[in-house]
Amino acid sequence: MELFLIQSQEHDFLPLAELNAVIESEGFNCNVKKLRSGLVIVDSINPNDFDYVYQRLTQRLAYTHQINHILLKTTLQDLDSRISTLDWNSIIESSFVVRVKTYDSDADVVAIERRMGGLILENSTNLKVNLTKPNITIRIIIYKDDVYLTCEEYILNKKYFQDFKPHKRPFFHPGCMSPKLARCMVNLSRIKTDQLLLDPFCGTGGMLIEGGLIGARVVGCDIDWNMKNGSAINCEYAGVKDFKTYKVDINELKMYELCDAVVTDPPYGISTTTGGRDSLIFKDFLISIKRNMKDDALLVMASPHFVDIDQFLEEIGFEVLERYEIRMHKSLTRIISVIAQIN
After folding, report:
1. How big is the chain by its Cα radius of gyration, in Å?
2. Tens digits of per-residue pLDDT, 288-307?
3. Would you kindly state where each structural domain of the chain is located, as residue ranges?
4. I want to staple 63 with a disulfide (CB 3.0 to 4.6 A). Which of 15, 119, 168, 311 is the partner?
5. Does CATH place domain 166-341 in 3.40.50.280?
């Protein structure tokens, strides 16, 4: 069975990297095929696992806009005849809407939507078109000469990433990371349900929220009492159940349980507190965090382009597995690094 993903194109590499990381962390047995930027097919999904895979991807992914179940692949010339062969009453419960998306094609979107809606009605009983609140969306994706007839059975909660922006939470501080990027970083860590995720610079709790919402146990630390308490307030507000926050200096961090992943955005700049250590806080952090991680745990961290963390990595016993650049504004590019320990 197959899924068709329409991904964000705001970054060239992160959406696909996030998808691959989630598939790896969840242990899904499937293949990923990139058609072009923003269009990805996940195929060879075991039918017995399909519903869970579909639901879990919609729960976790941040840089994906839509996930659709592929019913069939055809061409524009054969679309009418192929659409008439499907048992639409087994696909649609009561109401539906047809939506067409085109990529590298000049097909007439409005005409296809109207014609396909009519054909579905002709080949079914007691179904209705509902343009505003349909029971299911039938989505026809046209890429060049290929036509994918799909249905959207589970909808990603894209509204969440708007409603939970940092300034809309009870506790706010300037310089907070967007929930979309925080969720992506959590996913890049390959964290699994019920595993322990640590953010030793938890700030306002963005990483903790995203880790907690996908089922991890989360622990946050900060040198600032206000941040430690603010993180807890925001976690409670977001509905995170299994979390703890502590006031701890990074040099004194000693976990009672070694963590399965570390996801963090260490402080830098005038709006954050580094305890007077400036870029050396990254070295202190790496030394401290290594003794608090399991051997196979990954570290996913953000750093500004003007701080060279590579000078510390090999010395302390780390290596970079993946790296992505995100231009925030003309004076700042964020570097997202996925880092493993050297055994």
Report:
1. 23
2. 999 999 999 999 999 998 88
3. 3-152, 166-341
4. 15
5. no
